[in-house]
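Example 3.2
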Amino acid sequence: MRVTILGSGTCVPRLERASSSLLVEAGTLRILVDCGLGTQHRLLAAGQDPCEVDLLFLTHFHPDHTGELVSLLFSGKYAGRFGRKKPLILAAGKGLGNFYEGLCRVYGEWVDLNGGLILRELPLDGPFFWTLKGVKLGTHPVNHRPESLALSLEFCGKRLVITGDTDQCPELVPFAAGADLLICEAAMPDAMKVPGHLTPSLAAALAREAGVSRLLLTHFYPECDGIDVRDQAREVFEGPVLRAHDLMTLDL
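Structure, written as tokens:
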């Protein structure tokens, strides 16, 4: 598997950090996780075609994770020879149908992909697993929004877990257990904890308790500038700690 960080930022507009998004390449499958502002241009900068995405998974519906969804659907339908030639699966937690219906009330046929959009609303009552093109995917509710889900991906013996936005969530420990890479939000420095989000030390505690191999911190507010978030995490987690930046890639 290859992971490309497309957006390592938040709702705060920044040139160096687009809003939340990342791409996972596993075999022939292209999985986009979240679709914040800047996603399509970051895909192009990474040498990827937005219309080649097979699955778009939304961790939750906040605008910094969904703000470019409409543009992605619109361009996929109306970009002519540059447009989408295959279906797109759009997956998220409870409320996805209502969320998409709301977009349709505003944008109508501009976002319908001529029947090429497949909605998959996922359960929130515990772990849920399914397989797509040889990739085992799993979700688990997290402590942020009612629809919020963490995502795991397993392919060729390697496992990746992405928390999405979350506060402390003990149930994530068994869900992430033994992952080769944990991509975890660390929105604010340790001294500036806010509700609904983790800090580097809290992310590191999750990584330690879950026994993951590597920890990648992401989803940084500007308050993290000038702070060595890796040092804060290393005080708790002994394994490799990485700090995300836009267009970085990691192979598993």
